[in-house]
Please model this.
Amino acid sequence: MEFCLIGAGFIGPVHAANIAAHPRARLRTVVDLDRAAGERVAGKHGATVTTSLAEALADPKIDAVVICTPPRTHAAIIEAAARAGKAIFCEKPVDLDLAKVDACARIVRDAGVSFFVGFNRRYDPTHRAMFDAIRKGEIGRPEMIVLSSRDPEISPPDYVKAMPYGIFYDTMIHDFDMVRWLTGQEPVEVYARVAVMLDEKTNPERDPDTAMVTLTLAGGALVHVNSSFRAVYGYDQRIEAFGEKGMLVSRNQQPTTLVRYDAKGIRQDPLHYFFIQRYAQAYRDELEDFIAAVEARRPPSISLDDGRRALAIAYAAMESAKSGKPVALKP
Amino acid sequence: MEFCLIGAGFIGPVHAANIAAHPRARLRTVVDLDRAAGERVAGKHGATVTTSLAEALADPKIDAVVICTPPRTHAAIIEAAARAGKAIFCEKPVDLDLAKVDACARIVRDAGVSFFVGFNRRYDPTHRAMFDAIRKGEIGRPEMIVLSSRDPEISPPDYVKAMPYGIFYDTMIHDFDMVRWLTGQEPVEVYARVAVMLDEKTNPERDPDTAMVTLTLAGGALVHVNSSFRAVYGYDQRIEAFGEKGMLVSRNQQPTTLVRYDAKGIRQDPLHYFFIQRYAQAYRDELEDFIAAVEARRPPSISLDDGRRALAIAYAAMESAKSGKPVALKP
Amino acid sequence: MEFCLIGAGFIGPVHAANIAAHPRARLRTVVDLDRAAGERVAGKHGATVTTSLAEALADPKIDAVVICTPPRTHAAIIEAAARAGKAIFCEKPVDLDLAKVDACARIVRDAGVSFFVGFNRRYDPTHRAMFDAIRKGEIGRPEMIVLSSRDPEISPPDYVKAMPYGIFYDTMIHDFDMVRWLTGQEPVEVYARVAVMLDEKTNPERDPDTAMVTLTLAGGALVHVNSSFRAVYGYDQRIEAFGEKGMLVSRNQQPTTLVRYDAKGIRQDPLHYFFIQRYAQAYRDELEDFIAAVEARRPPSISLDDGRRALAIAYAAMESAKSGKPVALKP
Amino acid sequence: MEFCLIGAGFIGPVHAANIAAHPRARLRTVVDLDRAAGERVAGKHGATVTTSLAEALADPKIDAVVICTPPRTHAAIIEAAARAGKAIFCEKPVDLDLAKVDACARIVRDAGVSFFVGFNRRYDPTHRAMFDAIRKGEIGRPEMIVLSSRDPEISPPDYVKAMPYGIFYDTMIHDFDMVRWLTGQEPVEVYARVAVMLDEKTNPERDPDTAMVTLTLAGGALVHVNSSFRAVYGYDQRIEAFGEKGMLVSRNQQPTTLVRYDAKGIRQDPLHYFFIQRYAQAYRDELEDFIAAVEARRPPSISLDDGRRALAIAYAAMESAKSGKPVALKP
Model:
């Protein structure tokens, strides 16, 4: 399978390297408006580079695209790629505009192309073991889910300015997807509270950098999500699922298991720094699953509707945080 | 110091044994309307027993009372004990009626007697180490507090019937006190959601047995509390305090540290079964602190106002759970 | 039961306090050649004090003695107490002279008095849970036992001078008892290696402060014990029992469960400082078991022969460390 | 760099896959006397296959060989590869015959080819973090090292028959290398004890399947190693390094971090099953280091002398186990 990577910044190089190392995939083209950025990624893996999306999509040898551009550009790229008949791997969020997402859904369906949303956490081996344990009934009916989802840093000011309240639709959107996936239930209500805790220098936009959300699921279970953009001890990603028969905990992960004992106490190194380190295996595994789905002509495991629903929860949380009132979610 | 224990059920025997073992205290009298119950406790420690509160309070040798009766009876007993000039150790909640609590406050102040509320968790060595670490600035400004507070069982139906929504003012009241104590801040808003997850047989009253609460503190920090009446793996009591410089975690505790490795995996025994086991040391230490305060003629460490404030938060949470709306708290 | 404490230093005050707090025991007399030392302990618990062992043993109200004097004095005290008909609780080692220990055994048997050796670790709740698990067959036949037994400090020079190679018969003797107790097997061979690692100032006697021992048990299982007198991170006491069906681990213990996360990593406080803290509960429980045995007129749980056998292993280890050769143990 | 893999069984496929995935390496040829076995590995990675070592070594395009054949064949292959001028990556042990190893050393030196021994554990990220911490002086002078090194299964009877006492020179040889590498010290004495614990069916050769070794290092530090061929709970690989300033612990590792809490207790999955899973990253990293050394024309990080010394310790341990006496090691 030959791939076109669209967007060479941030997460793009991770996908490029995974495609290059995949035994049944090849990185053919990198598209980026910034040719130099595109070349840095393309050069490492023997791919060509272009600044023209149309040119890349016109190449009949390209089977699939991976969309890593800023979220606001996703809908237009999805539309173009779908019309060109390419299989689509799209980073979350699907787009920032729910109406455009709905339009994308129609276009993708009509074009009959594969569409996959990169909710990478579903592929983390521990989260997946939790998913399996819930399916096997190990905790019985889920009653409470608690997710801690804390980043070690805030995005740069320009990024924050372009995506205010991104803590909901850019960060916690992963947690909303986790909840839907783990429980198989949709939330019916959301309540959110935010705070601005970082200083003026680090967060000049005064955008929410700290948040807590309560969800009520259709089956009655209660969900708590907390998030922060300054976990100084590393990428803090935990999930606990509590039910009638017990609790499952997906714990944090660390680069090594070394423990140091000295006169001051017992010490371990900080957690993995950020998602690139924590979810390295998950990024490889989601790519494999996408490729396997396209090869087998089965629908990819994470649908456009999954992407839309997580986004709708995020927007409801944003609305709640702004209004101070709980917001009902349509089924 | 000679003590009168009022209420021989439930937590009463714990206090009785601690008084008996304390080097500077003696259990003189046990008051219980059920004479047999009183005798069971009194007999173990060489105390006398009576069914008459008035008779007990008339004994000039009694320096202090420990009130362990049902919460609804507290205000009247506090009033009588205060008028009799006894130092008062009162189990939480101070009473169920906020107006009566306010009346108690006046009476206690006028009588000039010592008054202590039994928020035992403040004396847990690990929670206290967290308190000290926050005071020393180890995490800087607290930004998020997450408390898990789960019991292994629900109270008997009669008890539940008499105290509907007790999950807030009988159970989580401890957590509300923890938040105030740890952060030194008052909450300004509370939002609560409840669920009934136990079956008809275990929870015939269909009273909330599962709850999540969000608090916003005066300083902007966000707080999450979750509670359940069926933690099948034991008494699950954890606190995490997250701030600008890091996180503190008060972890669960277990009867032993034995770990078993076999072909099925790695296993430890369940957590301590319930609060009696988990907080055994805390119950001893709160008694010692109460006695030391009375001896030194200093105000006890936990005031009637502390008891009132925690109760007010609990009632606001109950109101929110019933109305589905956030409730503002008066400063 | 009325007790006479013989030896007010070191571990004496621990036993005195436990006797005083025990519901069925009373500390009547403290014997110490240093009257001031005796008075410090006796005064706290309302006991009388004497410098004369004979005087104390002549008191018919005394039911039992607890021997906490230096080991070299034990045999003579045991003999006197046995002849006076007192039940005997003796700190380990029984004595330093195996011939005297054998003589004690005869005298105690002839006098028909209860005799208990204070191998306190048998009463630690976690070690005991391991014992129970082995008995239940959880690991099948034990194949390897690994014991780490490290102290935070070396004894004072005078003490070390009086008891050279004490690392075997004063410290590891506990581990040798643990092995016998846990496995129910006797060792048939011992090999030991020692090192002097502390500096001249801390260990002026240049007595072994670091040691490793290999035991071969009668059933073929292999045992490793390691010990040091400078665990700077606290009292490091771990046991692992490995067998055909799995492994049991008795882990270290800490004063609190607080965990601190910051930019430098994840930290916990050091372990309990020393045995007084680590085995506080075990000291209470061994006293209770001794008292219960005397009351029930059953043999105490740890016999004089247990004390003798652990000592014999320690001496064989010392011989091996000196000769550099393995030493066979008689059955 | 183009590679020839010699020996397609057992660990061969691991090295083949790592070579294939390495950005600067290519698997060109697989040599195996069993052509079908060679084809299974070669086919996956587009390599050619041959049963003739001479033919493979005659190919001038081959830069390096990876030797994964049975240990007894190593010396002859090393000699042939060295004479053919190939860089050599050799699995441990270098050979079973110390005299042949010495001959290899001369031939390799004369041929001027790179030679690397596959002590993969040196590349484990946690062991390496321990190595770095010791180098930085975090524990000061090492005083005691304790290594647990337990396999989940014994090798097949044929393999065991061909390599009696392999527990020392095939398994613990890794631990002996770890000790030398971590401490930078050579052992001066070794004492070993073995046991046969598996039943007749699993261990028909009655070869030692359980062992404990004590090493004394030149600097006086004491070392304990224990090993078993039936850790039913998975591959148990731990190291602790104790010194004057504290202790470092390289803990076990698991496939996931999921923890399950239920009425029976707290459970985690077993450890990684075996070395293939536990040291997957280490195998990749040792290959990268070998390639980097060859490219930079620097000596590989693990020398033939390292391989010889670890083997000599293993043989001394075997001698001690057989004679029951400690064995001195020449410096």
Remarks:
- Chain B touches chain A at residues 141, 143-144, 146, 148, 150, 189, 191, 193, 195-197, 210-212, 214, 216, 220-224, 226, 228, 230-233, 236, 242, 244-247, 324-326 (CB under 8 Å).
- The first strand of chain B starts at residue 2 and ends at 6.
- The longest helix of chain B spans residues 304-323.
- The mean pLDDT of chain B is 97.
